C-alpha cells in the first residue's frame, strides 16, 4: 500500500519556529509509523516562496528574492534535520517543475470556463495572503494576525468558487473523513453553509510570482500557486509513475488557520481541473506561548534548533505530541516540559532500560537466553494488547494515544522489575533460569518499546536498539515482526543514559528568548 503525506509549505520570510516545526514533526511521526506498518510512503515538504512578505524581506536584506530564498532553503533544511524530520522530497515554488504544474492548473480552470476578469475591492492580509470581507474581520483586524489589513482595489482574474458549492457539499456528505478532526469538519461545514463567493486568483505582478498564462501583467495568486505544490511533486501534469502511485494524496496535514484553503479552495481547483481529490485534510492545533499562538508576526517564537540542542530533538518531539490530543492546541510551558521529561522519559523509560541492561550486565555479562522459558512475567499478553491499541490510535492519527499505549508497556515492564526483583533471584544459584527468563523478557519488551517509539523518537529508539544488540537501521523494522521471538535480544550492551534528568530550576533560569 502507498501513503502520500504532505505538510503546509512554509513562507520562508523568517526562520522556522517550534509552532511550524510541530506540524513537520507530527507528519514525520505519521510517515515513520506508516513505514513501520509496511506502507510505501512519500513524505513531501517544501517552501512557499512567492509571498509578498518574502519579497519585502528580501528587499530589506538587500537581496534579489531568489537569492534570499536560496539562503532560506538552507536554514529550513538545517532546522528540519535538527528535529529529526526526514522527508522524501522538498519542493520550492520557484522550481520549474512547480511552475509547469501551476500553468497546467490555470489552463484547465480557464478551459473549464471557471475564470473571468473582475474588480476586486476589499481587505487583504499580507501575512495570511488572504482576502477578507468586513464580516470576517474582528474589530477591523485580521482574525489570525490581529493586524490591520490593507484595502485593495484592482482588476483581477476570478475563479468561480461559488459554482462548486453543491459539489463540495456533496463531497463532504459522501466522505465524512475528508476533513479531520471532526470539530474542524464542523467549522468548515458552517463556512460552506454561509455560501461560497468567487475568489480572486491573480494580482498585479511585481515581478515575483508565477506569471498568469494568458493574462499579461498578472501573477498567479499565491494560494492558487502554493496549493498546486502537492501535485507538482508527483510530476503532474505528466502522469508519471509517482503520480500514478501516490495521487490522490492520503493526507494533507496543515494548521487550523489554513484548513479552509485546503478543504474548500483546493478541492474546487481540483474539481475544475478534473483531478481526483486528496483523501484527508487534517487541521492540527497551534503551539501557544503565554496563551497566544506562537508566531513570527507576534514575535514570541522559540527556536527548534536551539531547543533541540538543549534538550534533545526527541524530547522536544515527545513533549509536543504527548501534551494534548492531536488536533488540539498546546501550550509550550517549560515547567510542564521538565515535569514530563523527568517523569516519562528519564524515570519510566530511561530507568527501565538502564536497570534492565545494568542487571543483565552484572549478573550474566549481558548474555540472555531469549524468551524460550515461557512467559513468566506475563508481559507478552500486555504487549499484544498494547500493539492493538497503538495501531488503532496511530491509524486514527491519535498520536497522543499511540504514546499512551507505549507507556502502558513501559509501566508493565517497571512493574515486572519490582515484582520479580531480579536482584533477589540473583542471590540464589537455583534461580538462575528464572533470572534469565525475567531479564530476557524485559529485554524483549524493551525491544518492542524501541520499535513502537521509533516514529516519535527515532534517535533515542536507535540508541535503545543498540543497547539491546539490535540492528539499529529502522528501515528494516516492521510492526508485523513485533512479537517475532527470533528478534528478542540475546546480548545487551551498556549505553549512556537515554534521557539524563533535568533540573527544573536550571531550566527556568537558563531560559532565554529562543528556547
Ligand atoms: N505558506 C502557507 C501554507 C501553504 S500550503 C499550500 C503558510 N505558511 S506559514 O509559514 O505561515 O505556516 C506553515 C504552517 O505552520 C501552517 O500549517 C501553519 O498553520 C503552521 N503554523 C504556524 N504557526 C503555528 C503554531 N504556532 N502552531 C502550530 N502550527 C503553526 O501558511
Describe this structure in words.
It is a single chain. The chain is α/β, with parallel strands linked by helices and 515 residues long. It has two domains: 2-307, HUPs (Rossmann fold, 3-Layer(aba) Sandwich), CATH 3.40.50; 334-487, Isoleucyl-tRNA Synthetase, Domain 1 (Orthogonal Bundle), CATH 1.10.730.10. The protein is 48% helix and 13% strand. It is built from 19 helices and 15 strands. The chain has helices at residues 18-36, 52-60, 65-82, 96-111, 165-174, 182-194, 222-227, 229-232, 241-246, 259-273, 304-311, 313-322, 334-364, 379-395, 399-420, 422-425, 432-453, 458-467, 504-509, and strands at 2-7, 40-47, 89-92, 115-125, 130-132, 150-159, 179-180, 199-200, 202-204, 218-220, 251-255, 281-284, 287-289, 292-293, 330-331. The strands form four sheets. The protein has a six-stranded parallel beta sheet with strand order 3-2-1-11-12-7, sandwiched between helices. Strand 11, helix 10 and strand 12 (281-284) form a beta-alpha-beta unit. Helix 11 (304-311) crosses helix 12 (313-322). The radius of gyration is 26 Å and the shape is elongated. The two termini are 40 Å apart. The protein binds 5'-O-[(L-methionyl)-sulphamoyl]adenosine (MSP).
Annotation keywords:
515 residues; 4-stranded antiparallel sheet; binds 5'-O-[(L-methionyl)-sulphamoyl]adenosine; Rossmann fold; 6-stranded parallel sheet; 15 strands; 48% helix; Isoleucyl-tRNA Synthetase, Domain 1; alpha/beta; elongated
Structure summary:
The protein has 515 residues and is an alpha/beta fold. 48% of the residues lie in helices and 13% in strands. The strands form 4 sheets. Strands 3-2-1-11-12-7 form a 6-stranded parallel sheet, with helices on both faces.
Amino acid at each position: 500500500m502507498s501513503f502520500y503525506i504532505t505538510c503546509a509549505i512554509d513562507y520562508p520570510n523568517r526562520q522556522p519556529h517550534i509552532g511550524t516545526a510541530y506540524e513537520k514533526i507530527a507528519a514525520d511521526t505519521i510517515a515513520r509509523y506508516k513505514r513501520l506498518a509496511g506502507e510505501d510512503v512519500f513524505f513531501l515538504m517544501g517552501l512557499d516562496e512567492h509571498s509578498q512578505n518574502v519579497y519585502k524581506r528580501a528587499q530589506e536584506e538587500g537581496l534579489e528574492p531568489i537569492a534570499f530564498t536560496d539562503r532560506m532553503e538552507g536554514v529550513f533544511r538545517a532546522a528540519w534535520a535538527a528535529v529529526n524530520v526526514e522527508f522524501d522530497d522538498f519542493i520550492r515554488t520557484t522550481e520549474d517543475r512547480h511552475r509547469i504544474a501551476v500553468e497546467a492548473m490555470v489552463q484547465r480552470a480557464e478551459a473549464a470556463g471557471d475564470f473571468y476578469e473582475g474588480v476586486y475591492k476589499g481587505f487583504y492580509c499580507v501575512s495570511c495572503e488572504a482576502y477578507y470581507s468586513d464580516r470576517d474581520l474582528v474589530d477591523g483586524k485580521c482574525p489570525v494576525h490581529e493586524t490591520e489589513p490593507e484595502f485593495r482595489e484592482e482588476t483581477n482574474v476570478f475563479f468561480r468558487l461559488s459554482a462548486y458549492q453543491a459539489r463540495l457539499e456533496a463531497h463532504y456528505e459522501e466522505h465524512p473523513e475528508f476533513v479531520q478532526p471532526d470539530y474542524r469538519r464542523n467549522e468548515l461545514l458552517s463556512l460552506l453553509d454561509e455560501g461560497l463567493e468567487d475568489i480572486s486568483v491573480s494580482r498585479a505582478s511585481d515581478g515575483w510570482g508565477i506569471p498568469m498564462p494568458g493574462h499579461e501583467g498578472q501573477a498567479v495568486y499565491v494560494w492558487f500557486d502554493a496549493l498546486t505544490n502537492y501535485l507538482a511533486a508527483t510530476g503532474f501534469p505528466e502522469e508519471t509513475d509517482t503520480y500514478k502511485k501516490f495521487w490522490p494524496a492520503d493526507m494533507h496535514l496543515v494548521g487550523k488557520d489554513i484548513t479552509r484553503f485546503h478543504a474548500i479552495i483546493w478541492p474546487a481547483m481540483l474539481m475544475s481541473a478534473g483531478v481526483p481529490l486528496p483523501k484527508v485534510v487534517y487541521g492540527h492545533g497551534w503551539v501557544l506561548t503565554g496563551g497566544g499562538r506562537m508566531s513570527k508576526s507576534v514575535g514570541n517564537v522559540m527556536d527548534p534548533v536551539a531547543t533541540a540542542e538543549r534538550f534533545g530533538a526527541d524530547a522536544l518531539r515527545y513533549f509536543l505530541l504527548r501534551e494534548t490530543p492531536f488536533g488540539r492546541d498546546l501550550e509550550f510551558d517549560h515547567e510542564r516540559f521538565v515535569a514530563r521529561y523527568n517523569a516519562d522519559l528519564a524515570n519510566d523509560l530511561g530507568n527501565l532500560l538502564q536497570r534492565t541492561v545494568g542487571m543483565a550486565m552484572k549478573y550474566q555479562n549481558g548474555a540472555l537466553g531469549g524468551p524460550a522459558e515461557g512467559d513468566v512475567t506475563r508481559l507478552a499478553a500486555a504487549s499484544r494488547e498494547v500493539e492493538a491499541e497503538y495501531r488503532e490510535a496511530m491509524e486514527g492519527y491519535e498520536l497522543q494515544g499511540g504514546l499512551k499505549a507505549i507507556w502502558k508497556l513501559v509501566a508493565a515492564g517497571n512493574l515486572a522489575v519490582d515484582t520479580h526483583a531480579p536482584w533477589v533471584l540473583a542471590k540464589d544459584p537455583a534461580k538462575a533460569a528464572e533470572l534469565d527468563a525475567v531479564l530476557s523478557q524485559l529485554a524483549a519488551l524493551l525491544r518492542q518499546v524501541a520499535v513502537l517509539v521509533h516514529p516519535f523518537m527515532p534517535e533515542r529508539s536507535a540508541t535503545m536498539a543498540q543497547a539491546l544488540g539490535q540492528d539499529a537501521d529502522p528501515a528494516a523494522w516492521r510492526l508485523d515482526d513485533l512479537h517475532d521471538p527470533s528478534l528478542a535480544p540475546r546480548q545487551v550492551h551498556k549505553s549512556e543514559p537515554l534521557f539524563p534528568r533535568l533540573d527544573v530550576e536550571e531550566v527556568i533560569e537558563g531560559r532565554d528568548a529562543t528556547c
